[in-house]
Design a protein that fits this description.
alpha+beta, Beta-Lactamase, Helix Hairpins, 5-stranded antiparallel sheet, 13 strands, transmembrane, transmembrane helix, histidine kinase, HAMP_dom, transferase
Length: 472
C-alpha cells in the first residue's frame, strides 16, 4: 500500500470512527435520558392514581366502585390519564377496567402490599411499561394494574438513528473526498522530491525541487537542495581531481619520454662505436644532463606525493636565522649568473615547517634568478605579520603576461618552454610551492608585467598543530 492510499484510508477511518462512535453515543444518551424522564412521569402518574384510590377506599364506607370510576373519568377529562389499559380487582373479581385488557392479562406480578413493581414489555416495535401494586382498604385488598405506552421515545430514537446514519454516510463520503484531496496535496510535494531524487540518480545533478510552501515540506526541500548542491560540488571536484591526475600522469609520461628517448639514442650511438672523442664527450654530457633532469623531476614528484599523504608539525624558529640559511643556499646561484641578490628579514619568531618552507623559498628565489638577466636584481623581504609571516620576492627579469599568471602553478606548465628545458626545469616547482602554501593555510599572489619583472608575495599562517621547538 503506497503512502497516498495509506493517508486516504487512515483519514477516512478516523472520520468514520470519530463521527460514528460519537454520534451513536450522543443519540443513545439522548434516548435513555428521554426514556428515563418518560418513565418518571408514568410512575408519578401511577402513584397519584394509587394514592387517590387508597383515599377513596379509606374514607368511603360503602362500595367505592362508583367513586373509583368517577376518579378515573375525572383524570381522563383532565388529561391526566395516559395509560393504555387499567384494571382494578378485589379478591379476584374485576371492579373496574379501562382500555385493552389484553395488554395486561398475560403478565402476572406479585408484590407486597403498599408497594408496586414494574416491568418493560418489548413486542416488535412496541415498548410498554407494565405496573402492578396491591392496596389495603378497610374491607379488602385491591389489585391495581396499568400499562403505559413507551413507543414514542423508541420511535423517536429509531428516527434519529436513521437520520444519523444517512448523515453519517454523507460525512464519510465527504471525508473520503477531503482525504483524497489532502493526500494529493501532500503526495504531490513528496512526488516532487521523489522525481528530483530519480533525476539526480539518473545523472541530472542540476535538478532541484524548489518547493515554496511555508511549512516543513519547504524546509525538507531546502535541505534536499542543499544536499544536492553539495553532492554536485563534490562530484565536480572529484571529476576535476581525476582530470588533474590524468593530466599530471600524461605530463609525467611526456616529461620522462623526451629525455629517455635522447638518452637511449645517444647511448645506442656510443654502444655501436665509431664516434670520435669529441662526439663521445658530447653524447656523455647530454646523457649526464638529461639524467640530472630526470633525477630532479623524480624528486619533485616524490615531494608532491609525500605532501598528499603525510602530516606536518609547525616549529617555532627565528625568521632571521631561517633567512640566513636561505641566503646561504641561493647566493651561489645568483653569483654564478651575476645577479644581485638582496635578503632582509625581521628579527621575530615564526611558526612554520622549516623543510617545506625552505623548499618553497628556494623554488621561488631560483625562478626569480633564472628569469633575471645578468646584472639584474632579486630582492627578498621577510617580515612577521599577525598570525604568521610574509615573504616578498621581486626580480627585474623579463616578466609575464597576465594570462600566464593563472597557469603558472599548474603541473609541468612553463611560460618559456625552451628556457626551462635549457635550465633543467620540469615545470613542477610552482606546483610544489602552491601545495606548501596550502599546507600552511596561506596564500600566494603573483604580479608581473612584461619587461618590468615579476613579484610574488607569500603569506603563511601557523594554524596547523604546533610543536614548540626553539631554534636560534
Amino acid at each position: 500500500m503506497n503512502y497516498r492510499l495509506k493517508l486516504i484510508v487512515s483519514f477516512a477511518l478516523l472520520i468514520s470512527l470519530a463521527f460514528g462512535i460519537g454520534g451513536t453515543l450522543l443519540i443513545s444518551s439522548s434516548y435513555y435520558s428521554l426514556l428515563g424522564e418518560e418513565e418518571s412521569a408514568i410512575i408519578n402518574e401511577y402513584e397519584t392514581l394509587q394514592n387517590n384510590l387508597m383515599m377513596i377506599n379509606h374514607f368511603s364506607s360503602a362500595s367505592s366502585a362508583q367513586n373509583m370510576q368517577e376518579l378515573i373519568d375525572q383524570m381522563v377529562e383532565r388529561n391526566m390519564a395516559h395509560w393504555q389499559a387499567l384494571s382494578i380487582k378485589s379478591s379476584g373479581e374485576t371492579i373496574l377496567e379501562s382500555g385493552d385488557q389484553s395488554l395486561i392479562l398475560n403478565y402476572v406480578n406479585s408484590t407486597k402490599e403498599g408497594t408496586y413493581s414494574y416491568v418493560h414489555i418489548n413486542e416488535g416495535s412496541s415498548r410498554r411499561l407494565l405496573l402492578y401494586s396491591k392496596m389495603s382498604t378497610k374491607n379488602d385488598v385491591l389489585d391495581l394494574r396499568a400499562s403505559f405506552d413507551l413507543s414514542t421515545s423508541y420511535k423517536q430514537w429509531k428516527s434519529q438513528l436513521r437520520m444519523f446514519w444517512a448523515i453519517y454516510v454523507m460525512v464519510v463520503i465527504l471525508g473520503v473526498a477531503v482525504a483524497i484531496l489532502f493526500a494529493n496535496i501532500l503526495t504531490k510535494r513528496l512526488q516532487s522530491l521523489t522525481n528530483a531524487t530519480k533525476e539526480i540518480a539518473g545523472g541530472n545533478l542540476s535538478m532541484r525541487t524548489g518547493l515554496r510552501t511555508d511549512d516543513e515540506f519547504e524546509q525538507l526541500s531546502r535541505d534536499f537542495d542543499i544536499m544536492a548542491d553539495q553532492l554536485q560540488e563534490n562530484i565536480q571536484q572529484l571529476k576535476e581531481d581525476v582530470q588533474r591526475k590524468e593530466n599530471f600522469m600524461g605530463a609525467v609520461a611526456h616529461e620522462l619520454k623526451t629525455p629517455l628517448t635522447s638518452i637511449i639514442g645517444y647511448a645506442d650511438l656510443m654502444r655501436q662505436g665509431g664516434l670520435d672523442e669529441g662526439d663521445r664527450l658530447t653524447a656523455a654530457n647530454y646523457i649526464y644532463s638529461e639524467g640530472q633532469r630526470l633525477e630532479k623531476l623524480s624528486h619533485k614528484i616524490l615531494d608532491l606525493l609525500l605532501m598528499e599523504k603525510d602530516t606536518f608539525t609547525l616549529r617555532k624558529i627565528s625568521m632571521r636565522s631561517f633567512m640566513e640559511q636561505i641566503l646561504t643556499t641561493t647566493y651561489p646561484l645568483a653569483r654564478k649568473k651575476n645577479v644581485n641578490l638582496v635578503v632582509s628579514s625581521d628579527d621575530v619568531y615564526i611558526f612554520i615547517e622549516p623543510d617545506l618552507a625552505k623548499s618553497l623559498l628556494y623554488n621561488l628565489i631560483d625562478n626569480a634568478i633564472k628569469a633575471t638577466p645578468e646584472g639584474g636584481n632579486v630582492k627578498v623581504i621577510a617580515r612577521g605579520i599577525k598570525g604568521g609571516c610574509e615573504f616578498d620576492i621581486s626580480d627585474t627579469g623579463c616578466g609575464m603576461e597576465n594570462k600566464e599568471l593563472a597557469k603558472i602553478t599548474e603541473a609541468f606548465y612553463r611560460v618559456d618552454k625552451s628556457r626551462s628545458r635549457a635550465q633543467g626545469g620540469a615545470g613542477l616547482g610552482l606546483t610544489l610551492c602552491k601545495r606548501i602554501v596550502d599546507l600552511h593555510n596561506g596564500n600566494m599572489v603573483f604580479t608581473s608585467k612584461p619587461g618590468s619583472g615579476s613579484r610574488v608575495v607569500v603569506q603563511l599562517f601557523g594554524n596547523m598543530s604546533q610543536e614548540v621547538d626553539y631554534e636560534k
